[in-house]
Write a sequence for this structure.
């Protein structure tokens, strides 16, 4: 269990560093990080199930300005590990994803308050000409604090077993658990609706309706619909490319005039 706890903790640290030090590789997304947890714990399928649901829930979660949303990355890691280690279904794991995400939100706020003091220390080091020290404040101490913010909760949750997580879940009132279960069913649709609101237009609505009715009446799986969509996209692209390469009537007119001159 120690090795698994360390391994999953490292996955949490890697997911945290994704958007803060390594660029934006999207390893912090619930779908991907839950799959990594599933691979580490030997159950990729369940990790994928938990991650897919949490990914839909987090589609509408955006950090705007000083507003700090729930940390769905931390929630996804612990929820996926909980589902795999306790051999429960994904629905049960979702009941702790949101509370853990809110806990991660609070920890994130506290860590940012502490990091603000490091910024002042870095400014002071720059004024004193200690540039290496100022650089370490930003590049070394900042990532270390963020790494501990993820590694410690994940390690404790995995190392002490699912009993700690189960105890935490049992402390949650039944009315809150029922509410979170209901929210887990509504939030995916809400997140998907927010995503579609930025993509839909008069030209693309017909394709949404096409996919909906193909799924409803043809009884195709998601994979079948995806293959059908790719084929349709290739056909439309080929037709559009063919039309763009066809000379217009205006471009053909001068050529016709030249042909008439040659006949004379």
């Amino acid at each position: 269990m120690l090795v698994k706890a360390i391994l999953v903790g490292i996955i949490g640290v890697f997911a945290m560093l994704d958007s803060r030090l390594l660029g934006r590789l999207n390893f912090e997304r619930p779908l991907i990080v839950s799959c990594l947890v599933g691979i580490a714990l030997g159950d990729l399928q369940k990790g994928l199930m938990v991650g897919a649901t949490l990914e839909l829930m987090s589609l509408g979660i955006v950090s705007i300005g000083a507003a700090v949303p729930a940390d769905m990355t931390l929630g996804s890691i612990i929820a996926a590990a909980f589902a795999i280690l306790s051999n429960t279904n994904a629905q049960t794991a979702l009941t702790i994803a949101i509370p853990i995400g809110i806990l991660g939100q609070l920890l994130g706020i506290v860590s940012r308050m502490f990091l603000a003091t490091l910024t002042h220390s870095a400014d002071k080091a720059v004024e004193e000409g200690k540039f290496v020290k100022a650089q370490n404040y930003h590049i070394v101490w900042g990532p270390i604090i963020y790494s501990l913010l993820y590694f410690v909760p994940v390690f404790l949750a995995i190392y002490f077993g699912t009993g700690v997580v189960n105890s935490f879940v049992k402390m949650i009132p039944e009315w809150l658990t029922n509410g979170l279960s209901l929210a887990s069913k509504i939030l995916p649709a809400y997140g998907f609706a927010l995503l579609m609101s930025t993509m839909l237009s008069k030209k693309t609505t017909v394709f949404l309706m096409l996919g909906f009715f193909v799924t409803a009446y043809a009884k195709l799986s998601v994979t079948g619909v995806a293959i059908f969509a790719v084929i349709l996209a290739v056909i439309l692209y080929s037709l559009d490319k063919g039309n763009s390469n066809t000379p217009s009537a205006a471009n053909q007119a001068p050529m016709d005039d030249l042909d008439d001159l040659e006949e004379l």
